[in-house]
C-alpha cells in the first residue's frame, strides 16, 4: 500500500471525495501532472493524491492556488469549491455527527452528497419523496410551509428539486428505494388535481428498473421508523460508509459513522418488510388516485 493510502487518523469523507474529484477533473483537463501540482504547492505529489482522494481537509489557499494553476477563473465555480471545502472541514471536526441550523444551509450539504451517491434508501411519513415530486406539488409544499413569501424564492426551490431528479435518468442513474407511509399519499397537498397528477407521477417513476417503491399501510401498526423521515446514501467507493441524513424545522443531522448508519439501515429494512410489495403498493396508489 502506498503512503498516501494510509491516512492514519484521517478519514475519507463524502464531501472530501466530491471536492477531490472536482480538483482531479480540473487537473486532468489542464494537462497538469500530479507531481507538478505538488511542486506548485511546495509539497510532494502525495499531498495532491490525498487531496484528490478526499483523505485530508483542504485549505482555502491551496484550493485557490490549484485553481490558478489549472486555469480556473470562474469566481462562482471557485466559490463553490471553497464552500465545499469548508463544509468538509466542519464535518471532520464533528467526528461523524454533524448537527447544524438553517444558517448553515444543510440542504446544500445533502445535495452535494446526493450528487455522487449511487443508491439512496428513503423513508417518508408526511410527503412524497423529493425525487418523485412534480413541480406543482413542490410548489404547494413550499407555499404551505410559509417560510418563503417571495415567489422567486419558491420557484428557486422548485427548480432545484426538479434538477435533482435528473439523477434518476441518464446512462448511470442512481438506484432509489423508497418506503412511504400511506398518509403521505392521502394528504391533499395543493388540492385534489395536484395530488392526482402527483400520484400519477409516482406510478410512472416506479416503472423505472432502478426504482423500488413500497407503501407502509395504516394497518401495519407500530414500526421502527415511526420517529421521523430519513435518507440513507450509499457510494461506489470500496469501503465508503453509508451516510444518514434527517432534518426538521430547526436543524439537520448527518451521520457518517458505520455503527450508527447500520442502525438506520436496520430500521429501514424492518419497516420495508412490514410494507406492501411494490405491485400491491402501486395498486393502492392507483386506487387512491381514482378516489381523490
Can you describe what's shown?
- There is one protein chain.
- The protein is α/β, with parallel strands linked by helices.
- It has two domains: 3-93, 434 Repressor (Amino-terminal Domain); 97-291, 2-Layer Sandwich (Endonuclease, Chain A), CATH 3.30.870.10.
- It has twelve helices and seven strands.
- The protein has helices spanning 14-30, 34-40, 45-52, 60-70, 75-93, 106-114, 135-145, 151-164, 182-186, 192-205, 258-274, 278-291; strands spanning 97-100, 119-124, 175-181, 211-216, 230-234, 243-247, 252-255.
- A seven-stranded mixed sheet has the order 1-7-6-5-2-3-4, with helices on both faces.
- A hairpin with an 8-residue loop joins strand 5 (230-234) and strand 6.
- The model is unreliable at 1-10 and 96-104 (pLDDT under 50).
How is the secondary structure organized here?
Blueprint: H1 14-30, H2 34-40, H3 45-52, H4 60-70, H5 75-93, E1 97-100, H6 106-114, E2 119-124, H7 135-145, H8 151-164, E3 175-181, H9 182-186, H10 192-205, E4 211-216, E5 230-234, E6 243-247, E7 252-255, H11 258-274, H12 278-291
Parallel strand pairs: 2-3, 3-4
Antiparallel strand pairs: 1-7, 2-5, 5-6, 6-7
| CATH-assigned fold name of the largest domain | Endonuclease, Chain A
Helix content: 40-55%
Write down the Rg: 21 Å
Helix segment tally: 12
Number of strands: 7
How many domains make up the coordinates?
2
Name of the CATH superfamily of the largest domain: Endonuclease Chain A
Strand content: 5-15%
Distance between the first and last residues' Cα:
60 Å
Describe the structure in brief.
The protein has helices at 14-30, 34-40, 45-52, 60-70, 75-93, 106-114, 135-145, 151-164, 182-186, 192-205, 258-274, 278-291, and strands at residues 97-100, 119-124, 175-181, 211-216, 230-234, 243-247, 252-255. With 292 residues, the protein is of the alpha/beta class.
Amino acid at each position: 500500500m502506498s503512503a498516501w493510502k494510509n491516512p492514519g487518523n484521517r478519514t475519507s469523507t463524502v464531501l472530501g471525495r466530491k471536492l477531490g474529484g472536482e480538483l482531479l477533473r480540473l487537473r486532468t483537463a489542464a494537462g497538469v501532472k500530479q507531481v507538478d501540482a505538488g511542486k506548485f504547492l511546495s509539497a510532494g505529489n502525495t499531498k495532491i493524491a490525498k487531496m484528490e482522494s478526499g483523505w485530508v481537509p483542504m485549505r482555502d489557499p491551496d484550493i485557490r492556488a490549484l485553481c490558478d494553476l489549472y486555469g480556473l477563473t470562474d469566481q462562482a465555480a471557485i466559490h463553490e469549491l471553497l464552500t465545499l471545502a469548508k463544509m468538509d472541514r466542519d464535518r471532520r471536526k464533528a467526528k461523524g455527527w454533524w448537527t447544524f441550523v438553517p444558517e448553515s444551509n444543510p440542504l446544500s450539504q445533502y445535495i452535494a452528497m446526493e450528487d455522487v451517491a449511487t443508491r439512496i434508501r428513503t423513508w417518508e411519513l408526511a410527503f412524497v419523496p423529493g425525487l418523485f415530486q412534480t413541480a406543482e406539488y413542490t410548489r404547494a409544499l413550499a407555499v404551505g410551509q410559509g417560510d418563503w413569501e417571495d415567489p422567486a424564492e419558491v420557484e428557486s426551490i422548485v427548480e432545484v428539486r426538479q434538477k435533482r431528479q435528473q439523477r434518476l435518468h441518464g446512462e448511470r442513474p442512481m438506484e432509489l428505494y423508497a418506503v412511504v407511509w400511506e398518509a403521505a399519499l392521502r394528504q391533499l397537498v395543493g388540492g385534489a388535481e395536484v395530488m392526482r397528477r402527483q400520484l400519477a407521477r409516482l406510478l410512472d417513476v416506479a416503472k423505472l428498473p432502478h426504482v423500488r417503491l413500497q407503501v407502509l399501510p395504516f394497518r401495519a401498526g407500530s414500526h421502527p421508523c415511526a420517529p421521523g423521515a430519513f435518507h440513507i446514501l450509499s457510494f461506489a467507493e470500496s469501503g465508503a460508509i453509508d451516510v444518514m441524513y434527517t432534518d426538521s424545522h430547526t436543524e439537520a443531522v448527518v451521520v457518517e459513522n458505520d455503527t450508527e448508519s447500520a442502525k438506520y439501515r436496520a430500521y429501514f429494512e424492518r419497516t420495508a418488510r412490514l410494507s406492501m410489495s411494490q405491485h400491491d403498493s402501486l395498486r393502492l396508489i392507483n386506487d387512491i388516485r381514482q378516489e381523490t
